[in-house]
Write a structure and sequence with these properties.
InterPro entries: MFS, MFS_dom, MFS_Efflux_Transporters, MFS_trans_sf. It comes from Kosakonia pseudosacchari. Keywords: Cell membrane, Membrane, Transmembrane, Transmembrane helix. This is MFS transporter AraJ. Helix content is 79%, strand content 0%. The protein has 17 helices and no strands.
Length: 390
């Protein structure tokens, strides 16, 4: 199982590099291709749009093949999308390449979670999924700073060439280390949507979207916040981003450890509460360098402490449509990115200082926590024995 988890972690590391690596080389890309910075920013949106349209499509067609073959196809699609992006010179081709790159993102998480739910011992599924998600957190800590440095020192194209080569290595690891399993659910296409008739999955989708939006309302503007509010120099931002990345790694690891003692719901709800309190504290203590770093660290740790518990809750509440449920979680996650950045931008557009970014962040996080509490109330009311088990 450890080799399978490691192979899936390599896949999510590549996804983290592909999704967030563009942010560190945006200026170089714009200058090289001859487009504006806002136009280059569309590459971030195109990837997220690829995730949103690709996740349900891949989830619906993938049960015809073994989980291993589906995973191989998805990783190969990542390789192709990033390779096309590496050699593209026109705005249109760059956008198409980013769409292709994002297309398999959600489904990879979905397939990986289902594989681990089949091979992990009872009570260890959340920890195994946290191990898979660890790849993305390590990408934030190590991979993205490395990709940014390569883009600055040589060319943004070398950054994405490296990502393409890495996905080739992931394909080899999947062939060698991932067992050949099938999603045994025989449900027809229409039956895969039946779980969506219940409110529970929608409450988890809402918690995922609002929770992610809460952190990204602030984190999307972390550089101007740290420079203008906390008084850091621009040169300190690389180390600050590595610290935030370390928070993501440790938050995910800690969440996995806690899953042995506590239910995914309890871990997620308490984490949302901690993020909300940290955001409110940031509004007060943001001008303190120590306060800004420590509270920002808590928020970033919380962001990835939520990932595994929410993914497991979706699998538990998507019987007959597990792939669609897990992929839907990734759609909600990416939608949260966009919603959070939009709310943060709105605050700045209205002329407020960067300190005020933390207030909509706290409100969005409160909405996520409320969704989880309503979910927990419904579960306790209708299925008390299931709560006791978990």
């Amino acid at each position: 199982m450890k080799k399978t988890v490691f192979s899936l972690a390599l896949a999510t590391f590549g996804l983290g590099m592909a999704e967030f690596g563009i942010m560190g080389v945006l200026t170089e890309l714009a200058n090289n291709v001859g487009i504006s910075i806002p136009s280059a920013g569309h590459m971030i949106s195109a990837y997220a749009f690829g995730v949103v349209i690709g996740a349900p499509i891949m989830a619906l067609v993938s049960n015809r093949f073994s989980l291993k073959n589906t995973l191989l196809f998805l990783v190969a699609l990542c390789l192709v999308g990033n390779a096309i992006f590496t050699v593209s010179s026109s705005y249109t081709m760059l956008i198409i390449a980013r769409l292709i790159s994002g297309f398999p993102h959600g489904a990879i998480f979905g397939v990986g979670a289902i594989i681990l739910s089949k091979i992990a011992p009872p009570g260890k599924v959340t920890m195994a999924v946290a191990g898979m998600i660890a790849g993305m957190t390590v990408a934030n800590l190590v991979g993205i700073p490395l990709g940014t440095w390569i883009g600055h020192a040589f060319s943004w194209r070398y950054t994405f060439l490296l990502i393409s080569v890495f996905f080739a290595l992931v394909i080899v690891s999947v062939i060698v280390w991932v067992p050949s399993l099938f999603d045994t659910s025989e449900s027809r296409l229409s039956e895969q949507f039946h779980f969506l008739k219940k409110p529970e999955p929608w409450l988890i989708f809402a918690a995922t979207m609002f929770g992610n939006a809460g952190v990204f309302a602030w984190f999307s503007y972390v550089k101007p916040f740290m420079v203008n509010v906390s008084g850091f120099s621009e040169s300190a931002m690389t180390l600050i981003m590595m610290l935030m990345g370390l928070g993501m790694v440790l938050g995910n690891m800690f969440s996995g450890r806690l899953s042995v003692k506590f239910s995914p719901l309890r871990i997620a709800a308490v984490t949302e509460l901690l993020i909300m309190l940290a955001m409110l504290a940031l509004f007060v203590a943001g001008e303190s360098k120590v306060g800004a770093l420590s509270l920002g660290f808590v928020c970033c740790a919380g962001l990835f402490a939520l990932s595994a518990p929410l993914q497991i809750m979706l699998l538990q509440n998507a019987k007959g449509g597990e792939m669609l449920g897990a992929a839907g979680g990734q759609m909600a996650f990416n939608l949260g990115n966009a919603v959070g950045a939009w709310f943060g931008g709105l605050i700045i557009a209205f002329g407020f200082t960067y300190s005020y970014l933390t207030l909509p962040a706290a409100v969005l996080t409160f909405a996520a926590m409320t969704s989880l509490l309503i979910y927990g109330h419904r579960k306790t009311k209708h299925q008390p024995e299931q709560v006791v088990q978990h």
